[in-house]
Amino acid sequence: MTFISSLPICIFPESESVSPPAFENDLEEEILFLFKEEFYGRKLILADREEVEQEADNILKDADVSDVAFLVVGDPLGATTHSDLILRARALGIPYRVIHNASIMSAVGCCGLQLYKFGETVSIVFWTDTWRPESFFDKVQKNRQSGLHTLCLLDIKVKEQSLENLIRGRKLYEPPRYMTVNQAAQQLLEVVQNQRARGEEPAVTEETLCVGLARVGAEDQKIAAGTLRQMCTVDLGGPLQSLIITGGSLHPLEAEMLSLFSVPETDSGPQSSNGLCT
């Protein structure tokens, strides 16, 4: 079995992680157009998250007697689900190889921040009326205290069911949603305000230097460096986006590189009386 990230093959995880920028709309039609079965002589299967996570045995079926390849976005081992496939393959005596590719974990170096100065990566999820987790912020603070940058991976909602459809067992899905740097910055500012309200002194403030990135590696890639408050309103266009919270002290080369992407002071955006962007 081959875990690959740069060539067309027979199993493509439709929404297991993310969609390539060119596939955001009419995903299935685009893939079948680009990866025509008759051209490659392979059967193409679009595997959604449920199939990858819950029906892994189907992916490995017959892989001991025929070639099966698994195409992902980014690096094949950037998701624990893919490690699970390897463990299953080993248990079944199926040989495998991994062909690595670029990942956002390394591609963020395009902004000029040095990769060895990054701490633990965190994920920022969409808040709801009843679920507003802040636990990720502990890792951000730990990184800041160590002078390390934090890469924030922003939430992706693809093939998600509403609570009503989930309860009723209806296979109806909500439109895809991709968190923007603006949304992530707004939630971070609320966490900062919440910590102050509890008498705590947050390691991140409205003026902390951050970097917003969008569509890294694409021709229309965008990078913006500014304060956390400015990240609320900076226009980075469409998905996929990521946010970096800097560790405080910058190497002179890092500072010079970030100056290339500096957000003008006038782009700080409107601010409410409690310090949050509106």
Total beta strands = 12
- Unreliable stretches: 4-25, 268-275
Question: How large is the radius of gyration?
Answer: 21 Å
Structural class: alpha/beta
Order of helices and strands: EEHHEHHEHEHEHEEHEHEEEH
Structural account:
With 278 residues, the protein is of the alpha/beta class. 29% of the residues lie in helices and 15% in strands. It is built from ten helices and twelve strands. The strands form four sheets. The chain has a five-stranded mixed β-sheet with strand order 6-7-12-10-11. The longest helix has 17 residues, at 181-197. The chain is globular. Mean pLDDT is 81; it is low at 4-25 and 268-275.
List the helices and strands and how they pair.
Elements: E1 2-4, E2 11-13, H1 27-34, H2 37-40, E3 45-47, H3 49-54, H4 56-60, E4 69-71, H5 80-91, E5 97-98, H6 104-107, E6 122-124, H7 136-145, E7 150-154, E8 156-157, H8 163-168, E9 177-178, H9 181-197, E10 209-214, E11 222-227, E12 241-245, H10 252-259
Parallel strand pairs: 1-4, 1-5, 2-3, 6-7
Antiparallel strand pairs: 7-12, 8-9, 10-11, 10-12
Keywords:
278 residues, five-stranded mixed sheet, three-stranded parallel sheet, 10 helices, 15% strand
Short description:
With 278 residues, this protein is α/β, with parallel strands linked by helices. The chain has ten helices and twelve strands. The longest helix has 17 residues.
